[in-house]
């Protein structure tokens, strides 16, 4: 849950709209496998994009965690899949596919949450005239994940004090004593954040003001150009293949 800690006050290198476009492109082409680009440079560039952005933002902890996981996935894909057979090969193939396809999207989502404040996100959504019934739930989710992470950390500390942990005397109760409190916390946090959003005027008839500095800069246009060019190239390949 530490991947989704709240953003700092420092302005990010990218506009929230650019981050959303990049997240969408990674989800479509890396996670979804659109355009059959898994063996092309575009696939690897999209996969590396969130890690490059995390490095540029100084999020070294998140970068190292994601890099270790996806590195293990590529290592397994290159060396373990061809050297195993049977059920073991199927298990390794499944885990490798999960790491190499899901982790880039997860890292991009973590980058988006870590480097974007709720005010910046709402301001960006208003710039593109996004309806409130979409903006409000998404803004609530921006606070939901960091809050859940804090609650999860507090539950872990409480369980360790009671020796409910791996290697402790009450291992069988570990999942029960963590899962039930987390489920209750998720319900209560969702209700509290929704009420807080409405209390602050989200969804009201009056136009909401915002003092956050958002706007497109050079790096935003570079990322957008690459994303749109990759999407156009994949569409062209699909249409040309269908024409044959």
Walk me through this protein's architecture:
The chain has eight helices and no strands. The protein is mainly alpha-helical and 244 residues long. The protein is flat and about 60 Å long. It starts with 15 loop residues before the first helix and ends with a helix. The model has no long low-confidence stretch (mean pLDDT 79).
Query: Fraction of residues in helices?
Result: over 70%
Beginning-to-end CA distance, first to last residue: 47 Å
The amount of beta strand, in percent, is under 5%
**pLDDT < 50 stretches:** none
How many helices?
8
What is the succession of H and E elements? HHHHHHHH
Main sheet: strands, sense, barrel: none
- Shape category: flat
User: What's the rounded overall pLDDT mean?
Assistant: 79
Structural class by sheet pairing and helices: mainly alpha
Radius of gyration: 21 Å
In total, how many beta strands? 0
Q: Which secondary structure elements does this structure contain, and how are they paired or packed?
A:
Elements: H1 16-31, H2 41-56, H3 60-80, H4 86-115, H5 118-127, H6 132-161, H7 174-199, H8 218-243
Helix pairs in contact: 1-2, 1-4, 1-8, 2-4, 3-4, 5-6, 6-7
